[in-house]
């Protein structure tokens, strides 16, 4: 047997920073790069190993920087390329790595490449994007080339008046999709979006929408599942297309293999573990690991994300088990995460944000995350148990294009039907991407210490910032923050079990508690989590051996109790 190699990224904890909402250093209301540099001691004190920064590139900000107009420049309100170089050195000097978001499925429509491409049908860069002629209905109405729906509502095609064709945009109209079929486009992407930053010392990338580059060339209509509307969800037709693996292989040979990097790909709509292994197995080396989205997709609507349907705990348990176990017996690698900038807060979704339970359930979720195999990802604010925006906030306090476009499309479609809109609003209160984008709560001074701007931050600050903030929790050894720091240490101390161990869930059908085991050789751990606000019976699974409580989130518990308090979590070592 070959010895399993241990690259640095396997044992790492990655902390994701959303630049607009982390810390504002110059009082303009918007977070910035010098603001991140000024918090470097805080980041180091958490015990995280890698900082992942969401897009800070120049951008007209239709999708919070995921619409990039220049890969080689920084959005001026965030700072400069030199500021990023300072941030890279600050991370490196603290022994932390630094990765960027690689967004190369699409650019902004203000990128110079697209500006040229749209100029005329015979422009040399025409083929760098995906252009198609119109179709015409029987009555002569101009129609897009197919019925694909964009992720942000409406058609995935936009008509370009100037050059009289449609271009494809899977996301916003202002985010035209690049044509990866063209080799010159691919080379330009590698050079501008990757090499430029790797040469400055960046340690890798989180790779945005990594399985959408290859769409085939036929672009057929999607089957109709959302009746009564032309545009249909089509992810099955543009994810994991025919040349996907070839493109990633090329990206590795041409660029990534020349540096010591980590890559984590965003891999939506890929339910088959064997397929995911093609991306992350070292045989076909394409990505070091991926985010598989089942856990954060729990409860999303069948026809549209914001038609929330709820979920059962057994579903959470089976998706966690599935994506823990799929690498066993292979040399692939997995990730553990339950938050990012596209999700509601985990305490509000999987725990309880009621005042009496939010701290305890935040700690319970921290226990779960720190016991899971794979590279662990923590999203800014998760370490202090930040929660979703209050339910009273009206839609006008939300900023995200995804929520707002969908809300408006339903308003239009139903002629402002209060029932339909009420359901959308309820879904947004749980799943809205804005919850994660609320400014970081640093202390109890005005605007949560995020900005000194008199009028406040670019986005409304959470009403609870006086009770949930970093300064308060740093002083309190029993805070969520202190708990996260200690369980991150425990994770490293028992790394074979928690980061690398084999996973096994017990009693999947139980809808109140989640009990699972971790095993490495003779060593075992058992994790018991109560996912309800009521006391629950707890029977130790029969794994043989003596149970010794390693860590828990309720005071005065010695581990012999056969009941779990509301939202209690425990980790036992079994010897
Ligand atoms: C990814 C990002 C999301 C963005 C989208 C388009 O899903 O995480 O924030 O809107 O890609 O780039
Ligand atoms: Ca600023």
Automatic annotation (TrEMBL):
Coiled coil: none annotated. Transmembrane segments: none annotated. Keywords: Glycosidase, Hydrolase, Maltose metabolism. One of its GO terms (molecular function) is sucrose alpha-glucosidase activity. CDD domains: AmyAc_SI_OligoGlu_DGase. One of its GO terms (biological process) is maltose catabolic process. The keyword GTP-binding does not apply. Belongs to the glycosyl hydrolase 13 family. This is Glycoside hydrolase family 13 protein. The lineage of its organism: Eukaryota, Fungi, Dikarya, Ascomycota, Pezizomycotina.
């Amino acid at each position: 047997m070959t010895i399993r190699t241990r690259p640095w990224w396997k044992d790492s904890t990655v902390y994701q920073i959303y630049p607009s909402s982390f810390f504002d250093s110059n009082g303009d209301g918007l977070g910035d790069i010098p603001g991140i540099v000024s918090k470097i001691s805080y980041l180091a004190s958490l015990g995280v190993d890698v900082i992942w920064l969401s897009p800070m590139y120049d951008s007209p900000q239709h999708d919070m920087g995921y619409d990039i107009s220049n890969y080689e420049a920084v959005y001026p309100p965030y700072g400069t390329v030199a500021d990023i170089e300072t941030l890279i050195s600050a991370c490196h000097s603290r022994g932390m790595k630094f990765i960027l978001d690689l967004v190369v499925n699409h650019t902004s429509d203000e990128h110079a490449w697209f500006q040229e491409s749209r100029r005329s049908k015979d422009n040399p860069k025409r083929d760098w994007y995906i252009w198609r002629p119109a179709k015409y209905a029987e009555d002569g109405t101009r129609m897009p080339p197919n019925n694909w729906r964009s992720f942000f509502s409406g058609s995935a095609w936009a008509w370009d008046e100037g050059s009289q064709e449609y271009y494809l945009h899977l996301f916003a109209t202002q985010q035209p999709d690049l044509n990866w079929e063209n080799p010159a486009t691919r080379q330009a992407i590698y050079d501008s979006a990757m090499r430029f930053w790797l040469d400055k010392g960046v340690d890798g990338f989180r790779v945005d929408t990594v399985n959408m580059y290859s769409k085939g060339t036929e672009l057929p209509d999607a089957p109709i599942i959302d009746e009564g509307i032309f545009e249909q969800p089509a992810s099955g037709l543009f994810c994991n297309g025919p040349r996907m693996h070839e493109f990633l292989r090329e990206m590795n040979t041409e660029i990534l293999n020349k540096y010591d990097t980590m890559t984590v790909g965003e891999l939506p709509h890929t339910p088959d573990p064997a397929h995911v292994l093609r991306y992350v197995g070292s045989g076909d080396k394409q990505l070091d690991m991926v985010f598989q989205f089942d856990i954060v997709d729990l409860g999303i609507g069948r026809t549209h994300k914001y038609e929330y349907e709820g979920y059962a705990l057994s579903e959470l348990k089976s998706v966690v088990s599935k994506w823990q176990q799929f690498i066993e017996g292979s040399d692939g690698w997995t990730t553990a995460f339950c938050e990012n900038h596209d999700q509601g807060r985990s305490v509000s979704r999987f725990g309880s944000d009621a005042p009496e339970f939010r701290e305890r359930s935040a700690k319970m979720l921290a226990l779960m995350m720190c016991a899971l195999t794979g590279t662990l990802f923590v999203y800014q604010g998760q370490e202090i148990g930040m929660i979703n925006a209050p339910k009273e906030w009206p839609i006008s306090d939300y900023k995200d294009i995804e929520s707002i476009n969908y809300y408006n499309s339903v308003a239009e479609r139903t002629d402002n039907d209060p029932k339909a809109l009420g359901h959308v609003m309820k879904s947004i209160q749980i799943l809205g991407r804005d919850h994660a984008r609320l400014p970081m709560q640093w202390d109890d001074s005005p605007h949560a210490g995020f900005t000194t701007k008199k009028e406040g931050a670019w986005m409304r600050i959470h009403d609870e910032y006086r009770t949930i903030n970093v300064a308060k929790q740093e002083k309190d050894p029993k805070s969520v923050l202190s708990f996260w720091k200690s369980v991150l240490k425990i994770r490293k101390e028992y790394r074979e079990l928690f980061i690398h161990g084999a996973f096994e869930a017990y009693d999947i059908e139980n809808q109140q508690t989640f009990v699972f085991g971790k095993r490495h050789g003779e060593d075992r751990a058992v994790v018991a989590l109560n996912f309800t606000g009521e006391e629950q019976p707890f029977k130790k699974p029969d794994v043989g051996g003596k149970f010794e409580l390693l860590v828990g989130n309720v005071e005065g518990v010695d581990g012999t109790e056969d009941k779990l308090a509301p939202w209690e979590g425990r980790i036992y070592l079994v010897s």
